Amino acid sequence: MPQILPSLLAADFGHLADQIAQVEAGGATILHLDVMDGHFVPNLSFGLPVISAVRKASRSLLDVHLMITDPDRYLGAFRDAGADHILVHQEACPHLDRTLNEIRRLGAKPGVVLNPATPLGTIEHVLEVADIVLLMSVNPGFGGQQFIPYVLDKVKSLKQVRVNKGLDFTIEIDGGISTGNVASVVQAGVDWLVAGSSVFGSADPTATVRKMQQLAAQSGDQLLA
After folding, report:
1. Which residues contact 105 (CB under 8 A, 6 or more apart)?
2. Listing from the earlier edge strand, what are the strands of the sheet with 170-174?
3. In whole numbers, what is the pLDDT of the chain averaged over residues?
4. Nearest CA to 67 among 88, 93, 83?
5. 76-87, pLDDT tens digit by residue?
6. pLDDT at 143 (0 to 100)
7. Which residues form the catalytic set?
8. For position 40, what pLDDT does the model report?
9. Which residues pair with 135 in a beta bridge?
10. pLDDT at position 225, please?
11. CB 67 within 8 Å of CB 91
12. Are 69 and 94 in contact (CB under 8 A)?
């Protein structure tokens, strides 16, 4: 069943525990955390202390997206801080196979991320060692951007590759997700939808997550019908 993953980058950090409780009340069971270094992407976000604080405040799975230049240096530290999934960018990992296998060795689920313009072919040979493939539907570095429509073609192609190879990795998408496009994104083949501004910028994050989850579930049921 498709899942909505609230992105804490858009949350009110002055009331972070309350914000987490709100989205969990709406049905969220996985929280997405964007770590930015101001080098790989043109913005700084948060690091290990925030991951640790979220781990203490929540029993949800933590989906940690490393938008940093040298992720290999910090894999163990993020796992120790509480990351259940560690996602790294193909563009930042010269030895991607080794990086993904190290994440698995540490006990986390390994994920690989592609920027919008990066071709799927660049990860073809590591799909068997990845549990998650995250396709960015905005250019990474800032929240609140508009969804890039051509990424849906990448989703459809990736779903077909998964079928052809007989694999079962999760297809995740991040960027510009809202109630207005949840249905089309799920119908294209996405399993997990990261949503930040549309959730935490709404008047009622609990109701918004619940509504988005309902829309995703309905679209998923239509695919099975």
Report:
1. none
2. 3-6, 192-195, 170-174, 132-136, 109-114, 85-89, 61-67, 30-36
3. 95
4. 88
5. 999 999 999 999
6. 73
7. 34, 174
8. 94
9. 114, 173
10. 57
11. no
12. no
